Amino acid sequence: MNESDAIIFVVDDDAAMRRSLAYLLDSAGWQVETFASARDFLQRYEGHAPGCLLLDVRMPLMSGLELQQKLSRHAIALPVIFLSGHGDLAMAVQTMKAGACDFLEKPCKDQVLLDAVSRAVARSVAESRSAASANTAQAALATLTAREREVALLMAEGKASKVIARELGISDKTVQVHRHNTMEKLGLHSAAEVARLLMASGEI
User: Fold this and answer.
1) pLDDT tens, residue by residue, 55-72
2) Over the range 125-152, which residues count as b (16 or more CB within 10 Å of their CB) and which as e?
3) Which partner from 42, 82, 84, 189 sits 20 to 30 angstroms from 96, CA to CA?
4) How far is CA 201 from the centre of its chain?
């Protein structure tokens, strides 16, 4: 996942604002998709690429706040930048507490908006890479037997084979077999590498 893969999603019921934002973002080299309503966005969003959501606060049928809450309930981690024509401190605080990256007032200076988008995309790319790494690690760990996983966790703690054998109530020779099988299945060569894989998967 790279920033070049990112898509900036613009959701605003004001057609002129959508065109203006799309022009600015396109001229800055971003891929852009625009939507006239929150529901339109939900129907078409596929969640396959990193990026960010430029979201108007006040819209008919479903407000920007309601869309943010809906995305959160469905664990869709798309960074949100709110754009509001009504400077409301309480609303800004509410959206930021709910995880928004920024809350900008319309009209917003071009560079301020572009800087906010860059920060949000960088966050999205980092989260996408982390999620991909976790999925890869979890898939690798799924090839282990229950006993091999136990051995792997104890190896990650830096414990020697004799200590692992004592804690699991098995022979040192059996631990050595499990260690060998674990390393072979995971394609790793040291306990430190096992620890990093377990950390990437969220196991530790």
Assistant:
1) 998 888 888 889 988 888
2) beebeeeeeeeebeebbeebeebbbbbb
3) 42
4) 14
Q: Strands of 51-56's sheet, edge to edge?
A: 31-35, 7-11, 51-56, 80-84, 102-105
pLDDT per residue as tens digits for the range 15-38: 999 999 999 999 999 999 999 999
Q: What are φ and ψ of residue 66, in 5° steps?
A: -65, -40
- For residue 60, whether the previous peptide bond is cis, meaning omega lies within 30 degrees of 0, is no
Cα(114)–Cα(63) distance, integer angstroms: 23
Question: Tokens at residue 78, please?
Answer: 């798309």
Q: Is there a contact between 36 and 13 (Cβ–Cβ < 8 Å)?
A: yes
51: left (phi over 0), alpha (psi -120 to 50) or beta: left
